Structures are given as C-alpha cells and as structure tokens.
C-alpha cells in the first residue's frame, strides 16, 4: 500500500517506534530510523522486510539537528511522505521536586521536537498534496496522572498541536492525527514493572497485573504491533478524511 513512500520515525530503535517502522516497511515504505538504542539491530530488522532503510542520530532536543535529519531524509530518498513523531522521555516526581532540567528536556523532546519535524516536513508534503503526520501522544494527552506534570503537559500539548495543524491543512492531501496509547509493554514500562516487583517483593506477573489494574480496565497491555497497525490504517486511503483525531488505544482507561 505504501510502495514508493518514505517514512521518518523518531525514537524508532526499540518499542513503539520500531513497531511503527516495521509495519510501514511491510507495506513497502522506505524508512529512516532515529534514536539511541540498538541502531544496527533495528536497521537489520527493517531491512529484512525488503525496503530501503537508513538512520539519522539527531538529538531530538536540538532544532538544528532535527532540521538536518529531515533534509537528510529528503535528500536520500527523494521525499518524506510519512512522519511519525514518537520520540519521548519520562520523569516522575512531585512538581515541587521536579528537576528544572528534566522539565525542559521532556518538553523539548516530547513536544517541541514534533513542531520542528512537522514544520520542516510539511512544505514537501503539501507540494506533492499527500502526506501523513502521526503524533504518538499518550492517554496522558487526554487525562492526567499525579507526579507526571511535564509528561502530561507535553502530551496534552501534542494533542492540541495535532488539532491545530490538522485544521491548517484540512483542504490538502496531508492529514495530521495523534495516537494515544495507554499501557504498552515497552522496555521503558518494563523497567517500571521491574521496580514495582522489587519494591513489593512480588512476581513480575503480579507487578504487571497491579500496574494495569490501577488504570487499564482490560487488564491487557496494548502491543506495539497493534499501535503500528492503526498507524498503517491512518496512512491508507480509508483515512483520507480522518483529521485532527486523538485516537486512544487504552483498554478502556479514558472510558472510566
């Protein structure tokens, strides 16, 4: 379905981002990866699906590096058709104890980076009258949790940014949407599970159950593959008129 298209996925060397890259590659897209994880392993996984794959190590807190990454993608592949803004970090603390540098980093990487990638990618998409911008927000773009003030602020900002840019491009062939996952068993979340298990002297499975029971009524983790299949749908012709949506995939979290 995406033969001849090029996708840039930020934060894509593991977890949700790698799942997105793999799903888009399966549909025939060329992919540029970005991130600080196992770069060669991620490239090999995507390349095994038959398309072209590249990597750019832009630091997503630095606007000049972000712009250089977009330009490198366009130069290497000729176009940038699908932009998946996935890069993100987390820190948990009460607001009065929240380190200022952590706040600044979370806002820069989780929110501002999407502005910088989007502003650079949009002119080419609009010139070709086709493009997809998919912002990986979070259920925390729709509701809040305590001790996650920077993350919640950034993710709410991503949802608002998605709506605004979608309206600006509503009469074009470029759509902008957000995906809002609940708990997904990524390496980052597994660390939280491990810490809960150690702190409570309980099994890893019980720690997972407790984590899910607090927020996610299905008591099931969403998988990166499930999120990636939604992304593929949002890149399809069936989604041509889906614009400015914040699509929660959260096992009923926001329905409560």
Automatic annotation (TrEMBL):
InterPro entries on file: 3-OHbutyrate_DH (IPR011294), NAD(P)-bd_dom_sf (IPR036291), Sc_DH/Rdtase_CS (IPR020904), SDR (IPR050259), SDR_fam (IPR002347)
SUPFAM superfamilies according to UniProt: NAD(P)-binding Rossmann-fold domains
Gene3D superfamilies for the chain: NAD(P)-binding Rossmann-like Domain (3.40.50.720)
Pfam families for the chain: adh_short
Family, similarity comment: Belongs to the short-chain dehydrogenases/reductases (SDR) family.
Protein name: 3-hydroxybutyrate dehydrogenase
């Amino acid at each position: 379905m995406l033969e001849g298209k090029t996708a840039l996925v930020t934060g894509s060397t593991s977890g949700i981002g790698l799942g997105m890259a793999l799903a888009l590659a399966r549909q025939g897209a060329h992919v540029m990866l970005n991130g600080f994880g196992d770069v060669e392993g991620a490239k090999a996984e995507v390349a095994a699906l038959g398309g072209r794959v590249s990597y750019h190590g832009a630091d997503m807190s630095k606007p000049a590096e972000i712009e250089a990454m977009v330009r490198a993608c366009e130069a290497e592949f000729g176009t940038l058709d699908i932009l998946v803004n996935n890069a993100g970090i987390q820190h948990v603390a009460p607001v009065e104890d929240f380190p200022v540098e952590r706040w600044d980093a979370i806002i820069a990487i989780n929110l501002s980076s999407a502005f910088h990638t989007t502003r650079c990618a949009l002119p080419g998409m609009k010139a070709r009258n086709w493009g997809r911008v998919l912002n990986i927000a979070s259920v925390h773009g729709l509701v809040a949790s305590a001790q996650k003030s920077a993350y919640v602020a950034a993710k709410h900002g991503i949802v608002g940014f998605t709506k605004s840019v979608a309206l600006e491009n509503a009469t074009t062939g470029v759509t902008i949407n957000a995906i809002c996952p609940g708990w997904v068993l990524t390496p980052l979340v597994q660390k939280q599970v491990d810490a809960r298990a150690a702190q409570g002297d309980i099994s890893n499975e019980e720690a997972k159950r407790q984590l899910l029971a607090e927020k996610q009524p299905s008591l099931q983790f969403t998988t990166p593959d499930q999120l990636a299949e939604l992304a593929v749908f949002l890149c399809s012709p069936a989604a041509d008129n889906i614009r400015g949506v914040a699509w929660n995939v959260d096992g009923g979290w926001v329905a409560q």
